[in-house]
Amino acid sequence: MPLLWLRVALALYGVGLLYAVVSLWGGRPILTRIMLPAVGLGTIFHFVAIVEYAMLGPAFAPSFLHLGESLLAFLLMAFFFVVYLRYKTASPGVAVFPMVFLLTVFASAPSSLLSSPSPGVSNRWIIIHVGLILVGYSALFFSFFASLLYLVQERNLKSKVTRGGFWSKLPALATIDEIGYKCLVFGFPFMTLGLIAGSILAEARFGSRLFDDPKILLSILMWVVYMVLLYTRWSAGWRGRRAAYLAAFAFAAAVLAWSVNTGWHRFIVP
Amino acid sequence: MNFQLIGVNHNSAPLEVRERLAIPETHLPDAIRTLVQQPGVEEGMVLCTCNRVELLTSGNHGSDVRGFFPMYFGVSPDALNSHIYEFRQRDAVRHVFRVASSLDSMVVGEPQILGQVKEAYAIARGLGAVHSALDVLLSRAFAVAKRVRTETAIGSSSVSISSVAVNLAEKIFGSLKQKTVYLVGAGKMAELAARRLMANGVGKILFSNRTHERALQLSEAFGGDAVSFEKLYETADHADIVLTSTSATGYLFRREHGEQFLARRRNQPMFFIDISVPRNVDPEMGRLDGMFVYDIDDLQTVAAGNSAERQKEAARAEEIVEHEVERFTVRIKSLAVVPTILSLQEQFETIRQAEMDRIRGKLGQISPDQEAAIESLTRGIVNKLLHTPITTLKSSTSEAEAASVHEIIRRIFNLNSRKPNK
User: From B285, which residue of chain A is nearest by alpha-carbon distance?
Assistant: First the structure.
């Protein structure tokens, strides 16, 4: 059943994907009108799917990786709606929808590798660790995309030519800046706590082998960049191009950390 | 249904003619009452704005209000004829849709007109002068206007210099509340732009001028602070928006000034609007991250670009209107044949009932089964007989054809003496 709900959500996210692609080429009014209800409904189905997974218990849960993808997609949608309600802009959808769609495609694929985390590790800790990190990832994704939008909007304003469609509907520069900054500030404690939870967990079980894992090294690198990003913003008000480079770097590290070893830590894979 | 629209607008008549035909708001009810008293007129409304005076009526096929303007204003018809336009039926519907959607406006896409049409409608409706066909037409016109506004970007861009400046400021800072504007120099245009910015709610305004007296005067007039010209560079970074219009011959603000300001502002963006010729702000400064510099040519280019964009959007809006006119005419036509179809069905049903009663008397006792058989037989005959006239009524395409089919059917079946019971 949860898989069915997830696939319904996927179909609805498809409308969002279509909207994202089409809006870059001028947009279609009909898509603009149905996009929000569609992805909103998709998010609700997605939520139902996640709750049902949780209630089924670990025996029926899909591979941990798939659940992670599903959760990340859901969190991104939740972030999208928070930003939409607060700032009245659907512009992040252009990046969020394709991302969410892709993640949900993976999450709803029949899982052949049912790699439950190694039996020695407490599931509850893992869930806390993964959950925190995923909230951090979502925030970082939003912050990164906001800094890209900032660059686009800055260039728009400096080029002094009128552009129609999607580009003319971007939020104000200050609003984009605020979205990026607030996401950064919001995500940082989650990322930090998530990493701490993860390292305590790993330290306890694997001791010094901890630092052999590229995933952990990349995560730490990402966290450092994340902190630099926040620091330069606080101290010098870095935004625009410089902030975008840093955010891109942090995001790239995050993506690498996510994808290394097919998403799972080396030391748990037997 | 007979819609007629008579009027003058900024294209058809010069101001002298329009002002002679203008109806002050206090006289509107009187004008509307006079209008609906014209022979054959069932409903009417009057739209009077600074760019147009229009009469919209609905009545029977003989109604004609072309004589209203000369009669009401006591002007000779010859003086008006070349300025007045007239639309009927479909064309009148199209015109109403275009006016409400701001496609017939002097500045295409300006938002006021819809409110004006709504007000004119409310007044006429309050007087009972708009109640059925015009009510349907106007409600549809409002829906069309809304559709045009949401589906095209016709009203979204500014086409005047000062509104472009405000628009750009909003694209940079979002809300202008809490923002500070610095007016350097005191050109007329800068003053206009400042006024516009203030109307959009900027928090604070500073004035600086080589003649400090002038700055003081302005600060009193606008309610801001005057800053002495010597302190220009020390204070400029307090402002988010700097409007320059001095007669200085060299650049007042150069790239290095911009760098200093940004450092002091911790990289918060600044917007320089330079409306002076020769320019006061070095365009090089605009290359800095977070510095936005627009000179008078840039503003004009944006305004011109927006007008072009608006024209494109207007073409899309016209398509929407055309589509809606089509839908509306189909709908109104089907509404028009409904009473005839009803009377027709009613008349046949009465005949059938009468015949049924007669046969019952003749047959004496019959079983329920037999009764049902006779019921269904007679109903079947009636329905088959009615089928062709009803489909012909519904399917007549041109208006003239519809009217004649309508009339023939009413005469053949002698429906004119009857009114349908709804």
Answer: A158
